[in-house]
Amino acid sequence: MRRTLATHSADETERLGASIGTRLRGGDVIALTGDLGAGKTCLTRGIARGMGIDPDVVSSPTFVLIHQYAAPPGCGDLPGPLVHIDLYRLDSPDEFEDIGGEEAFSNDTVCVIEWAERIDALLPDSTLRIAIRLTGEESREFDCAANGSCFDWLNRL
After folding, report:
1. Residue ranges per domain, the chain?
2. What is the pTM for the complete model shown?
3. In what order do the strands lie in the sheet with 2-7?
4. Which of the residues in the chain have pLDDT under 50?
């Protein structure tokens, strides 16, 4: 399944992320690729919002590598915490394994990975891959590709 979407501002990018976030389930992995400043963290903020997590707590984990965000109590049927990983500083898939990164691929979490191309061979088959491309100063194009029925909702975005 493949779908291309476009946004024209950071607000639209965050709204797209929120729409994605409302549809995610535990075990879902979202692999983000794109140049610096493409909007990977902005999209992740939106995903957090859609999951009931305060988007203001979401920041690029470039120096920490992995952040975990939990929804506040009483949010109902959420898929679990959001694990946000940034692989910009890693040089190889071995380094990802060394930090225990594959533990984030759990049925109890939603995992969003920035710079996911660095561990492409380690990603689960059912990963939703989103390549982000700058098309203007504030506009972006999102090339979304997924295998498996868990992302059938992609056609309804």
Report:
1. 2-104+119-156
2. 0.91
3. 2-7, 140-146, 128-134, 29-33, 110-114, 82-86, 66-69
4. none
